Amino acid sequence: MSSQPDLHESSYDPSAYPASQDAYGMTEETKDLKREQFRTYLHSLIDNTIEQEDTIELVIPTTTNKHFFYFIGRLNPPHDGHIAALEALIHKANAAGSEPLILLGSGPGKLQTLDNPIPFSLKREFIESKLSEKEIGGMPIVPNMYHIEEMASPAGQVSAYVMGSLEDNINYDEITITHVAGGKDEDTTKLAFALNAARKTAESIQPGAQITASTFAVEAKPSASLSDQPMSATQVRKSVYNDYLEGKGFDEWNPQYKEFYGTMAHQIYDAILAPALGLKREQVLDYIKTGQLPKPSSESTGKKQRTSKKTGGNRKHRTHKNKKQSIYNKTVRRNKRRTLRKQ
C-alpha cells in the first residue's frame, strides 16, 4: 500500500453536497457558507499538490558568444563561384547559430548598364532558386536561413546588421564578425571599410567583449559549367554581347551557361542584353575590347548641356545685379549734371 497521503483530504466534506440534493431550498446565508467551504477546499487541494510534486527548476542559459557572417557582391550575373561562396556562408553561419546577411549591389543609381545589367529582384530570385538545390544536414537551404538586401551603403548596412543583434542587457565575452568573400584579392581588400565599421559598432555596444573581425575567402574552382576554368561574370556578359553583334540570339547562346541558369536562363540572357539594345554597335564592341562603359549622352541622363551665351566683345552679360548697378551709375551721373547746371 502506498504511504502517500490522500491529496483530497481536507476539512471540506463532499457528502455535504450530494448530487441529488436540492439547492433551491437553501437560504442565502447557507449558500454563502457552502461557497466559502468550497473555496477553502480548492486552496487546500492546490497547496497539497504543490507539496507532493517535485520542484521544477528553470535553468536559463547565459549567452556569451555572438557570431556574424555577411557577403557583399554585385553578382552581375550570379555564377557558380558566387553560389559556392553563399553556400559556404550559410553553412558557417548555421553552424554558429547565426543568420547571415547578403548584400547585392545594383550599380550606381541602380541603372542597368553593360557591366551591371541584372536588376536586384532577378538576382535575388535566381539566388534563392539556386540555393534551394543545396542542402544543410539533409535539408534544403531556404530563404529564412539567410537575409538578402539590396546594397546601398555597405558599411552602414553591415553595422546595422551587427547593431540589431547585440542586446544591451547581455554582456558577451566574445563577438566574431566574418566577411565571406570570393577568392579575388580585391573582394577582400576593397570592402575592408565595411568590416572595420562593423567592428567599431560592436566595440561601441559591447566594450568589454573580445571582438574578432576577419575575412574568409572562398577560392574559385573550375566551373561545373565550363569544366576547365572558373566561371566569370564578365565572360558571361560578353558572351551575350558578342552573340548580339554577330546577329545571334538566346537559342544560340553557350549551352553550358544555359544549363547553369536552368529555367531562368532566358530571363538572365534578356536582362544582360537589355542595356546593349540602346547603344551603337561601336559602343558595345568597344566595351567588349576595353571594358570601358560608353559615356552617357545628355538624353540618357536627362541633363541639359550648358551653352555659353554670347554677349559681344568685352561687354558683361546683364545679370540682375549688373542691371541694378547700371541704373545706380546712371542716376549718379544724372544728378551730377543737374548739380553742375544749377551752378
Automatic annotation (TrEMBL):
- Per UniProt, the ranges with Basic and acidic residues bias are 1-11
Q: Where is this region: Disordered?
A: 1-29, 291-343
**Basic residues: compositionally biased ranges:** 303-324, 331-343
In its UniProt entry, what is this protein called?
Uncharacterized protein
Q: Which organism is it from?
A: viral metagenome
